[in-house]
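ok posting inputs for the 2-acetamido-2-deoxy-beta-D-glucopyranose job
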Amino acid sequence: MMTWPWRALSLAALLLLLPSPAEPFDTVTTGAPLAGNRTLVSAKGTFALGFFTPDAAAGRTYLGIWYSNIPTMTVVWVANRASPVLGSAVLKIDANGSLVVVNGQGGVVWASPVTPAAVLRAGNATAQLLDNGNFVLRFAGAGVVWQSFDYPTDTLLPGMKLGIDFRTGLDRYISSWRASDDPSPGEYSFRIDPRGSPEFFLYRWSTRTYGSGPWNGYQFSGVPNLRTNTFLSYQYVSTADEAYYRYVLDDGAAVLTRFVMNSSGQMQRLMWIDTRRSWSVFSSYPMDECEAYRACGAYGVCNVEQSPMCGCAAGFEPRYPRAWALRDGSGGCERRTALNCTGGDGFAVARNMKLPESANATVDMALGLDECRQSCLSNCACRAYASANVSSPGGKGCFMWTGDLLDMRQFDSGGQDLFVRLAASDLPTNSVSDNSQTAKLVEIIVPSVVALLLLLVGLVICVIKLKKSRKAIPSALNNGQVTPFGQRSHIAGSLDNGQNTPFGQRNHIAASNDAQNNSSLRPTAGQGNHQDLDLPSFDVETILYATNNFSADNKLGQGGFGPVYMGRLDNGQDIAVKRLSRRSTQGLREFKNEVKLIAKLQHRNLVRLLGCCIDGSERMLIYEYMHNRSLNTFLFNEEKQSMLNWAKRFSIINGIARGILYLHQDSALRIIHRDLKASNILLDRDMNPKISDFGVARIFGTDQTTAYTKKVVGTYGYMSPEYAMDGVFSMKSDVFSFGVLVLEIVSGKKNRGFYHNELDLNLLRYAWRLWKEGRTLEFLDQSIAGTSSNVTEVVRCIQIGLLCVQEQPRHRPTMSAVTMMLGSESPVLLEPCEPAFSTGRSLISDDTAEASRSNSARSWTVTVVEGR
Ligand SMILES: *[C@@H]1O[C@H](CO)[C@@H](O)[C@H](O)[C@H]1NC(C)=O
Ligand SMILES: *[C@@H]1O[C@H](CO)[C@@H](O)[C@H](O)[C@H]1NC(C)=O
Ligand SMILES: *[C@@H]1O[C@H](CO)[C@@H](O)[C@H](O)[C@H]1NC(C)=O
Ligand SMILES: *[C@@H]1O[C@H](CO)[C@@H](O)[C@H](O)[C@H]1NC(C)=O
Ligand SMILES: *[C@@H]1O[C@H](CO)[C@@H](O)[C@H](O)[C@H]1NC(C)=O
Ligand SMILES: *[C@@H]1O[C@H](CO)[C@@H](O)[C@H](O)[C@H]1NC(C)=O
Ligand SMILES: *[C@@H]1O[C@H](CO)[C@@H](O)[C@H](O)[C@H]1NC(C)=O
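and the output
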């Protein structure tokens, strides 16, 4: 929102200065220049044009256009942004037919291009401010020769084109103001790259910092929430003459809306909300870390729902595993197996994608998707293909990428399918390698980068142990010996697409990467040496036997760094074995503390690392096996959620609380988990919850309460506001995540954080609203609402959940208070404050709610706003 001190020059003052409406005051002519305080006002009174002085102290005066019918001075266009006038100024049409701004001394500070003499001779010049905010210079008989819409500043109004006119070379782009009171060109600009399928890029100075994704016939593939709604449509036009983007309002849509690049480089869509008398931000880009330009390098796929956020496309592996482990994915990924152009290559599909940069892509609107596939296969340079017109499923339109695939991300929902070419051996086994219309598809595998690290550290320790015991391990691995263990495929269950391990998606244990915080990696107490560790090492024969010689039937999943197998030990214990792929061979001593930490933690609500196994180049970690996978597979699955009745849910909530309490207080160390979420809560055979994934956990000294990181890791939707915004984490940020979990468990709904599509998808807000309206019980998961639930417990859990997600960390209870509240029968709990609506998007939820409440007469205009 633009709020400047000089808005004291308010509408009232402006109106007093306006001439009576009888005369046409929307034009400047040769004989009638515009001077001093006079302003032009468009026919319906929407826009005004005149001189303004944003910073009264500096006294710099600019010619600009602003909204004339709202009380907040909002400038949408500036003429002389680089050359302000000090003192009085005049706008006139000069003898050459050019609009000029002249200063008090008669010097020209700004001029539109000179009009060709032929046009000039033909007739009178008029410059008129139109009601859409366009200021046009016309000549009788020659039409418009110049318009402000062709020279945007930081604002894109409805109808304005953003893009290139190839005939004239005119490149319309927007660039930020330097500061909110200084319209001179700032650091950021947003402009089109017309190569391939055009895409918009945000530049900071001349460096790209964000790409919108190529246009896919319907929207920019990286901005899936900007889509046509009932009153506003987005258009992209690409012809031999022009390539531009614009959005238009329906006739009669009585809304004021604009896109603006603010001076911090945020591209925002705002809408004027009358009842609040202010502008509200409806979307803002870039919006998360995944939007950093090429954040995950070539063939890397960014996904904010994952941590680490960078993964590789299926069939690819990190090029620099060590940097990836440190959560720097910018080095990208490389192919496991080189392509064989002459035959056998196939495609793996990646879903919900922001398409790669298309500068080196070809677009052929005549090819359907199958022809597209054939065409890509027959071109050795082709790396991937996708539909280039998603608005006609099964119709025509083909993208083919011939260069590296760059700047990809994966969305939770939205985005589109991308077909990535792979060598036959890298194709998922159930996929048909070629020429099939119904090729089986696999998902992108987001690899468990840090799991590798855990593995490595575990191995370092194992090596040490081995050295000590000088125990010889026969290298029996992979020599094809068959063990008499029966098939156990039924135990492996139905893991979807090999992505999940029984430990959630990325069970990783590693130190944090924040170099500046390295000291916090070391526990202040309990600095032991290796002898402290109680990490058993397993014989390789034991593991071979337990996993049926790593039979495919025992495979639970495949992470980026190696497969995970289910197994059963002789004593009947079920285990999960993570087998490190051979290519990863970094010794990472600095992670030793973390493994020490994990090996030391023992609690019935934490997942247990049982030991490790090392043999030649084989490296494995052994965990207890979780028969019921993770909480999210029940909670957010329509078929399974009713299996968790209230009693189970309440016991899960209690178990999680005890696990966190142990981490925070009751273990020898103080540990902040930092990535608590439903997929990191594993469930054993009896549905007991176990916290897993200590990949980003931090050890605090006993007297330490908060820490700060520059690199926020974790999962949006579960992050407390102070952590997401400022990198401040503490036990109270875990409490926040716990609160989100509680509300999810009670409601059976996922809190989507950044990605809420509709109002009600922001779970915290929904819970709060029901709470305030006294309809708390409606929050309970409908699938168990009919069954006997302990109403007091339900309400108490919701209240505790709300207490945990309060904006201010100091208002949130500690975990020991939480466990006490959960255990007590007494209903006297504190009254929660309004929750933080998670990660800085509160404005949106607020406004949408406000708008739909207060504006029902026009609700079609405001309730259908797009958002995530
Ligand atoms: C412009 O406004 C100022 C103060 O509002 C006033 O003093 C001045 O006379 C005005 N000038 C003209 C040309 O109207
Ligand atoms: C008109 O253009 C000519 C040539 O560009 C220039 O020399 C002259 O000063 C201009 N006249 C005015 C009034 O700006
Ligand atoms: C120019 O404008 C004047 C006054 O508006 C008008 O009388 C005259 O006919 C116009 N000339 C042309 C060529 O349009
Ligand atoms: C730009 O927008 C972002 C996101 O809404 C906001 O955090 C930032 O303060 C804004 N910058 C300015 C200068 O208004
Ligand atoms: C490519 O595939 C063909 C047919 O399967 C095979 O004959 C050829 O050796 C392969 N080339 C390479 C370089 O792998
Ligand atoms: C995309 O498909 C839609 C629906 O079939 C069609 O109307 C539109 O013209 C297509 N766009 C292009 C660029 O071919
Ligand atoms: C496009 O290809 C050129 C030449 O091969 C290469 O230099 C450039 O990096 C590629 N750009 C992209 C975005 O792949």
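notes: The chain has five domains: 1-149, 152-287, 296-435, 472-624, 632-864. The chain has a mean pLDDT of 76.
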